[in-house]
Design goal:
Elements lengths: L5 H10 L6 E4 L14 H18 L6 E3 L5 H11 L5 E3 L4 E3 L6 E3 L5 H21 L3 E3 L6 E6 L8 H11 L1 H5 L3 E5 L3 E8 L2 E2 L2 H12 L6 E4 L6 H6 L2 E4 L5 H9 L3 E2 L4 H13 L2
Parallel strand pairs: 1-2, 1-11, 11-12, 12-13
Antiparallel strand pairs: 3-4, 4-5, 6-7, 7-9, 8-9, 9-10
Amino acid sequence: MQVKTLAGKLLSRRHQTARPALIVLDLDQCVVWTGYDAPFAYYQALPRLSRLVMRSRKGELPPICINTGRDRNYVEAVTFLTGISDWCVIEGGARLFHPVTKEMQNNPEITLEAFKALIKLQQEWVPKICERFPELVPYPGKTAYVTLEVHPHTARMSLEEYYQAIKEDLQRMEQGGLISIQRSQIAIDIGATGKEGPINKGSGMRLLAQKTGVHPREMLALGDSMSDYPMIQQAGFVACPSNATAEFKRMTLEQGGFVSARPYVEGVVDAIRHFCRG
């Protein structure tokens, strides 16, 4: 697809001379292959990402961090594997986590009312949803965000059908502005709302900007699905691997971004090299 919006054309011109000041990576389906059938090429590409991270720690490349719906422990394991050592957005924008100092910071945009609604959701609604759909598995370890993954071997419907069913069940809470519901390629995410709207990876970018001093328009954001769209809306540089959804690829191109011809972490490495000429 070659058509770009005016904003995308302007960003493309900027990319010819500019370089991002911070690189922000989604995890699932970008850095992490969420399955047990990954090809050998995927494992060969992981050390290449680690080498780029090592170069960023030496100042040769911009700092590299994470923006994900995953919890602190999952993110910490990935940082051990890759060498990432800067502030990361976790739980879909609800928190920041520093893998070296182990510091955690809650997103101050989350209202007390929304946080109470999320607790009620976790205690009352999630058990009901999982009783109705036992093939949905809640991710453990999260306190400010709910993720329900569809077990691929027991799924009775498509992810989109589960998503629509959950939106119907939680319609009153969502319409009341207490929660927001979105989906990735592998799971359904339910987050709180904040003073400026839904808490998601986009609000996580603002929180990251406050912590690092880097404006989102100076950040390179790499994602793969619509749950990453709020993130790339904030970023000045955007990219995705070849396994991203068709809709996400289209939106990436419309923003003047880069769609790699390579999948997963190979595409992530390709995109970083594209923007950083490394």
